[in-house]
Design a protein that fits this description.
Elements (H helix, E strand, L loop, with lengths): L7 E2 L33 E9 L14 H14 L3 E6 L3 H13 L5 E9 L2 E3 L6 E4 L4 E3 L1 H4 L15 E6 L10 E4 L5 E4 L19 E5 L8 E3 L6 E2 H13 L5 H15 L18 E4 L16
Helix pairs in contact: 1-4, 4-5
Protein name: Caspase
Organism: Halocaridina rubra
Pfam families: Peptidase_C14 (PF00656)
Length: 303
C-alpha cells in the first residue's frame, strides 16, 4: 500500500436551478401498538446501489475505489437478506428511469427498501441546494426519495425506506477539538463551526424514511487508502457495523455506533492539502421512522 496517496473528498462544484413541487397529504395506516417494523414478509426487500466511478465531464475526477465500495456493500446487504442490484455510471435519464421502475414495482411482500448512492456531490452557490452527480449531469438529492412517498409508492406505505449517501455536501473541513480519553491520550471528535453558511436541506415530510449522509452539511466526505480502509470511510464503517451487530441490535443503535466510529477513529491524511489534512468526518442522520427496525435472520418457510 502506497503511503503517498492522499485521502480524497467526493466533491465538485456545479449545480442547477431547483424545481419546487408541493406535496399532498396522504393518510397512512399505523399499527399504534407495534413498536417494531414487520420483518416477517416473504422477502427482506430490494437494495439498489447506484455507483459512479467515471464521468463525461472532464473536471470530475474518477472514483477508482468505487468497485471496492460496491463489493463490500453488496456482500453486507446480501447477508442481511436483500436482493441487491448494482447500477454503474448511469446517466441522469437512466438513473431517474430506474427510480421510477423501483417505485412502480410491487413491494407488498417486502420488509423494506434500501438505496445506496455513491458519487461526487456538492452545493449550488446561488440557490445553496445540495446535488449529486450522475455520469453526465447533477440531480438534486430529493430525486432519491421523492418517488417513495406514500402517494407515489403505496406498496411501501408503513415500511422503512433507507437511503445511504456517499458524497460530499460542500467544501468545508472540520478540524475537530482536542479532548483526552480515559487513558490520557489525545483524540479528536466533532466540533463544527457555527459560523459556516448553512445549506438549505430539502427533506421529506412523510413517515418511515431514513436518510444518512456520509458527512455533516457543508463538509467533505472522505475516501481513504490507509489502514484497514480502502475506499469510502462512511461505507467502510457502515458495512463493519452491520456485519457485526445486525443480529443483535436495532437499526438506530447500529447507526449510532457508525457515527461514533467515524467521528472518533477517522482523521483525513492529506499532507499536501492543509485545509483537508487531519480533518474529521461525522455522518449525518435524518429519520422519520416511527418504529424500531431489525435485521434478524428470516426463518425458513419449512420451520
Amino acid at each position: 500500500m502506497s503511503l503517498s496517496r492522499q485521502d480524497e473528498p467526493d466533491a465538485c462544484g456545479l449545480g442547477k436551478e431547483r424545481e419546487s413541487k408541493s406535496q399532498s397529504l396522504v393518510t397512512v395506516p399505523i399499527e399504534r401498538e407495534r413498536k417494531h417494523y414487520n420483518i416477517h414478509h416473504k422477502t427482506r426487500g430490494k437494495a439498489i446501489i447506484f455507483a459512479y466511478s467515471e464521468y463525461s465531464k472532464s473536471e470530475l475526477p474518477r472514483r477508482d475505489f468505487a468497485p471496492h465500495d460496491v463489493q463490500i456493500c453488496t456482500k453486507a446487504f446480501k447477508r442481511l437478506g436483500y436482493e441487491v442490484t448494482v447500477h454503474w455510471n448511469f446517466r441522469k435519464r437512466h438513473f431517474l428511469n430506474i427510480l421510477d421502475e423501483v417505485r412502480k414495482a410491487d413491494h407488498s411482500e417486502s420488509d423494506s427498501l434500501v438505496i445506496i448512492f455513491m458519487s461526487h456531490g456538492g452545493v449550488e452557490k446561488l440557490s445553496n441546494n445540495e446535488y449529486l452527480w450522475t455520469s453526465d449531469a447533477p440531480v438534486y438529492t430529493t430525486e432519491l426519495w421523492r418517488n417513495f412517498t406514500p402517494e407515489n409508492c403505496p406498496t411501501l406505505v408503513g415500511k422503512p425506506k433507507m437511503f445511504f449517501i456517499q458524497a460530499c455536501r460542500g467544501t468545508g473541513s472540520d478540524k475537530g477539538v482536542k479532548l483526552k480519553n480515559d487513558f490520557g491520550l489525545k483524540v479528536e471528535t466533532d466540533a463544527v463551526s457555527t459560523t459556516k453558511k448553512k445549506e438549505d436541506l430539502a427533506l421529506p415530510i412523510c413517515p418511515d424514511m431514513l436518510m444518512m449522509w456520509a458527512s455533516y452539511p457543508g463538509t467533505y466526505a472522505f475516501n481513504s487508502y490507509h489502514g484497514v480502509i480502502n475506499g469510502s470511510v462512511f461505507l467502510h464503517y457502515l458495512v463493519e457495523v452491520l456485519d457485526k451487530w445486525a443480529e443483535r441490535e436495532d437499526l438506530f443503535s447500529m447507526l449510532l455506533r457508525l457515527t461514533r466510529e467515524v467521528a472518533i477513529h477517522y482523521e483525513a491524511y492529506c499532507p499536501s492539502e492543509y485545509q483537508m489534512h487531519k480533518s474529521k468526518q461525522i455522518p449525518y442522520l435524518f429519520s422519520t421512522l416511527t418504529k424500531n427496525m431489525h435485521f434478524f435472520e428470516k426463518k425458513s418457510n419449512l420451520e
